């Protein structure tokens, strides 16, 4: 079983890396980019009996900072 966890900063939290990417794209001539939010993807190979609740617990305790980050879990058998 596999789980993919997408982690993004919550709306309203400053994203300096996203701002730097936005600026760099403009400097390279890519017009029309209004804003950039940077995040991370974590892929987990799991035992077949691992539940989504267990992955959520992993996110809450280690993978994400729930104070400033939102996350989504996609479980694939």
Explain this structure to me?
The protein has a three-stranded antiparallel β-sheet, covered by helices on one side. The protein is of the alpha+beta class and 77 residues long. It has a single domain (2-76), classed as Phosphoribosylformylglycinamidine synthase subunit PurS (Mth169, Chain: A, 2-Layer Sandwich). Helices cover 31% and strands 30% of the residues. The protein is elongated. It has helices at residues 16-27, 52-63; strands at 2-9, 39-45, 69-76. The termini are close together. It has two helices and three strands.
Number of strands: 3
Give the overall shape, derived from the CA principal axes: elongated
CATH architecture: 2-Layer Sandwich
CATH C-level: Alpha Beta
Series of secondary-structure elements, N-terminal to C-terminal: EHEHE
The CATH topology is given as Mth169, Chain: A
The portion of residues assigned to helices is: 25-40%
Q: What's the arrangement of strands in the largest beta sheet?
A: 2-1-3
Would you identify the CATH H-level superfamily?
Answer: Phosphoribosylformylglycinamidine synthase subunit PurS
Number of domains: 1
Low-confidence stretches: none
Specify the structural class: alpha+beta
| DSSP summary: helix tally | 2
Mean pLDDT: 97
């Amino acid at each position: 079983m596999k789980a993919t966890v997408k982690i993004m900063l919550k709306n309203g939290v400053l994203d300096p890396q996203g701002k730097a990417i936005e600026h760099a794209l403009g400097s390279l001539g890519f017009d029309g980019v209004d804003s950039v939010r940077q995040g991370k993807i974590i892929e987990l190979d799991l035992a077949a009996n691992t539940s989504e609740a267990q992955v959520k617990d992993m996110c809450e305790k280690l993978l994400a900072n729930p104070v400033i980050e939102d996350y989504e879990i996609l479980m694939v058998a």
